[in-house]
Write a structure and sequence with these properties.
alpha/beta; TIM Barrel; 4 strands; 40% helix
Length: 122
């Protein structure tokens, strides 16, 4: 099940989304936009995951805000690579800049290798 999640989604804030996922461990859940949406704190998805990690939840990083605030790096550190999905939020945004942003993430080389993210060329 995929759902838009975020601070500005009164019906689906990331904390409540994780609670729902915990009640149904056999269903796969995808939290769109890393659970941060457009408004509110950029580390909310990270903080909620630390409080309630769910092995049946993946985070879609298809939001420009996630790349510009460090939310992707924070969530990769706490949730891990296997719980993260690359997304572009197309057709709202063009996909090409997202793949370039992914290459430029400030993540460890080990994280890059495990996720098969190319090292930025210089």
């Amino acid at each position: 099940m995929i759902s838009h999640t975020g601070n500005d989604s009164p019906n689906v804030p990331i904390g409540r989304f994780l609670e729902l996922a915990a009640r149904f461990p056999d269903i796969r859940f995808i939290a769109a936009h890393l659970g941060i949406g457009v408004l509110g704190p950029g580390d909310n998805g990270y903080q909620c995951w630390r409080n309630r990690p769910c092995s049946n939840v993946w985070f879609d990083m298809g939001t420009l805000r996630a790349f510009c605030t460090g939310a992707v790096e924070m969530l990769l550190e706490v949730a891990g690579l296997t719980e993260s999905l690359f997304g572009t939020d197309a057709p709202l945004y063009l996909p090409a800049p997202f793949s370039r942003l992914l290459e430029a993430l400030a993540i460890s080389e080990q994280c890059r290798e495990k996720s098969h993210i190319a090292t930025p060329w210089r």
